[in-house]
Design brief:
alpha/beta; Nucleotidyltransferase, domain 5; Alpha-Beta Plaits; 9-stranded mixed β-sheet; 6-stranded mixed β-sheet; 33 strands; 35% helix; REXO5 exonuclease
Length: 736
């Protein structure tokens, strides 16, 4: 039974800034599990990783945390679905650091024109002992039975096995006769579509040892088709409309056609047999036969060209031809058996593949050079990372990871990368191709006209200004001789105060209070407006500016933000209280999951407030009722729903403790330039949010989706990034 995957991340507190290495750590574990030295990330936990359907990373190119909060109301889907968020340390080489590529594929010896492989002995025909094919099979020729997969190898590579869990209703071919080196070979290949059930067969091809086609049949899936995968399968809705053949019909025909000692040959044949829901005891898998180091696999298209000199899966054709693929796999197995491992090893397939990659990279550089994009620079520079490339390891699954975007995203050709001219095109390709890949990186971008440094500075200043206004309240009027100390004490009960000043420009004195957290300012407006403070009945309000006209809407949306679900804010605490003290005080509150006690990031001293996160939203509501009129160590507590998460709290603190001053002339020029395009930016952000919503809804259940605002790290300054993550579950909700 499929277990629901879920995420757990201790990101409520202020220390939730995640480095590129930590992000890489998460993606590697989510994609590979415990294989290839992948371990649970240190800062979050993925439960039931083996049940993940895939990993999708959406990169919003050249955007930062500032963009998310400046256009917070436009990102309606992001804030309602992605509960786990973190500040992301910006990187100068973001995409490379993202997928951890450490392979330099440029020629090591220009005179030779080809790079040396990781082991020099592979390049010498006189010494083949280092070749993985020789290490596995030896140098001598053998019969075909030496190359069929053992039962253990079949189990390891997810072949359907009689009696295995999940194979209860599978049909056996009943080919149970003893195999000999004279047993007949049959090439098999299937094309699949994505249905509500998963992968279902839409076409089956079987060829005999002479390459004659014995079966080439369209099959009607049992469940509703979600994606025909036409680009790869060549299957369309129109083609399947008149089809009456069902999977059971194909199973019956295959049982009749195959002799009792038949050996099936295919490339990643486990996928075909799983889709056919059939069990066959004797198979040769060409993706494993042509062995590589570290569990990597050659693609069928490459092997057909390098070994047989044949071009298959041509881009001019609509989809793959299963008969062509079945015949190619069969001929590859026959070549291996007839020529022997030594001859195959002498082909230097690794070197041929590297040369092919170099040619692709060179071609991509020539095509992309006029664009002058930032990513292009990455293609021209060697990577200095020492981390292994886990995208290469992912080829164990039999398919390349997918990269889609406007720029050239992959410098090593380890991925299926595709260039598009618009975000709409990227989305369409993603909807088609993401279900076919276990790991995808989709990059959307605003366009070069929206990434100028002065626009970043202008956006940053606008967000800073709005947050400052939201943290600020004005209270009054007071009597001329009012006690400032008692005013500070009363307003301090709402939360930590950053600054308090007396306003003297008015007929009667007012005070301006700037808080350190949004909840404190909102609590002051809600609880002290109309109250008697320092002998005066006062009015409490935020500044009235054009930017603050939608403040009430923004506060409401922050409360409804999925990240604040089940989280409450409590103020009026003594600063001397520790987390242990508070855990004891609040221990009787039902379903309390986490307690976060903010600290001054410079002095390390506790503030007079805390955040409580509950497992259920109803428990948070009950806690708010219970805390009303509650006193701790003689102090009355005040509480409300949370508005700002840990990463935003940290950002506000940094904003309050940095001057952010610049020349007035520069500032006004930036504001003028930004105002000209900000309306367009709002529309673009709303469109991006809609694209991500559409993509997210198309994902299979148990898919980890990570949305990244990478941040900016350039000579013009640095802007932190933002990460949002969720695991898709039934109904489009995220699993936490």
């Amino acid at each position: 039974q499929e277990k629901p995957c879920r995420l757990s991340a201790a990101l409520l507190g202020g220390d939730c800034e995640i480095s590129q290495d930590q992000l890489y750590e998460l993606l590697k574990y989510a994609a590979l599990g415990k294989c290839h030295n992948a371990a649970q990330p240190s800062w979050c936990r993925v439960y039931h990783q083996s049940h993940l359907a895939g990993v999708v990373v959406v990169v919003l190119h050249e955007m930062s945390q500032v963009h998310f909060y400046r256009f917070y109301l436009q990102f309606k889907h992001l804030r309602k679905v992605f509960q786990h968020r973190f500040t992301l340390t910006p990187s100068t080489n973001f995409l490379t650091s993202l997928y951890g590529e450490g392979t330099d594929l440029r020629p090591q010896n220009p005179a030779q024109g080809l790079p040396s492989t990781s082991s020099e002995c592979v390049t010498k025909s006189s010494d083949l002992q280092c070749d993985p094919i020789i290490r596995r099979y030896g140098e001598k020729k053998r019969g075909l039975t030496s190359y069929t997969l053992t039962l253990e190898e079949q189990k390891k590579n997810d072949y359907p096995i009689k009696g295995s869990p999940g194979c209860k209703d599978y049909v056996s071919t009943e080919c149970d006769q003893q195999r000999t080196d004279s047993s007949p070979l049959f090439g098999l290949d299937c094309e699949m579509c994505l249905t509500a059930k998963g992968n279902e067969v839409t076409r089956v091809s079987l060829v005999d040892a002479q390459g004659q086609c014995l079966l080439n049949e369209l099959v009607k899936p049992e469940s509703t088709v979600m994606n025909y995968r036409t680009r790869f399968s060549g299957i369309t809705k129109k083609m399947l409309l008149p089809v009456k053949t069902r999977l059971s019909d194909i199973q019956t025909r295959l049982k009749k056609m195959l002799p009792h000692d038949a050996v099936l040959v295919g490339h990643s044949l486990n996928s075909d047999l799983q889709a056919l829901e059939m069990i066959h005891p004797s198979v040769i898998d060409t993706s494993l036969l042509f062995a590589r180091d570290e569990g990597r696999r050659f693609k069928l298209k490459f092997l057909a060209k390098a070994v047989l000199g044949k071009e298959i899966q041509c881009e001019q054709k609509l989809g793959h031809d299963p008969t062509e693929d079945a015949r190619a796999a069969l001929e590859l197995a026959q070549f291996f058996i007839e020529q022997g491992p030594a001859k195959v090893a002498e082909l230097n397939l690794e070197m041929l593949l590297t040369a092919e990659k170099l040619a692709e990279v060179s071609q991509n550089k020539a095509v992309l050079q006029p664009q002058g994009c930032g990513v292009q620079k990455q293609l021209n520079e060697p990577s200095c990372l020492s981390k292994p490339c886990f995208l290469d390891c992912l080829q164990v699954t039999g398919q390349k990871p997918l990269l889609l975007g406007r720029q050239g995203l992959d410098s090593s050709s380890l991925c299926q990368s595709n260039l598009s001219t618009s975000n709409k095109q990227i989305l369409q390709r993603a909807l088609e191709d993401v279900p076919l890949s276990t790991f995808s990186i989709i990059q959307f971008s605003l366009g070069p006209e929206y990434i100028a440094s002065h626009l970043y500075a202008g956006l940053n200043e606008k967000v800073r200004s709005k947050l400052t206004d939201m943290l600020t309240i004005y209270a009054g009027p007071f009597e001329e001789s009012f006690c400032l100390k008692s005013v500070k004490k009363e307003f301090g009960r709402c939360g930590p105060i950053h600054s308090l000043t007396v306003v003297t420009e008015t007929f009667q004195p007012y005070v301006r209070v700037q808080y350190e957290v949004l909840e404190a300012a909102q609590l002051a407006v809600e609880s002290l407006n109309g109250a008697e403070v320092a002998g005066s009945c006062i009015k409490v309000q935020r500044p009235v500016t054009a930017a603050m006209l939608d403040c009430d809407v923004l506060i409401k949306e922050l409360e409804l933000d999925v990240e604040n679900e089940g989280v409450i804010y409590v103020a009026g605490l003594k600063k001397s209280l520790t987390e242990t003290d508070l855990q004891e005080e609040f221990s009787h509150l039902k379903d309390l999951e986490t307690l976060f006690l903010p600290k001054d990031l410079q002095s390390g001293k506790h503030r007079n407030c805390c955040f409580l996160k509950f497992q259920k939203s109803e428990s948070a509501v009950d806690a708010l009722e219970a805390i009303k009129g509650w006193t701790v160590k003689g102090r009355e507590l005040r509480s409300r729903n949370a508005l700002a998460s840990g990463h935003l709290w940290r950002w506000i603190w940094q904003m309050n403790h940095s001057s952010g001053k610049q020349g007035k002339h520069i500032f006004y020029k930036q504001m003028e330039q930004l105002s000209d395009c900000e309306q367009d930016l709002r529309k673009k952000m709303k469109k991006l949010d809609h694209h991500i919503k559409k993509l997210y809804r198309s994902l299979q259940n148990n898919t980890l989706c990570v949305v990244l605002f990478p941040g900016v790290n350039s000579t013009h300054g640095s802007q932190p990034g933002l990460g949002l993550m969720a695991i898709k579950t039934d109904g489009g909700r995220s699993a936490c």
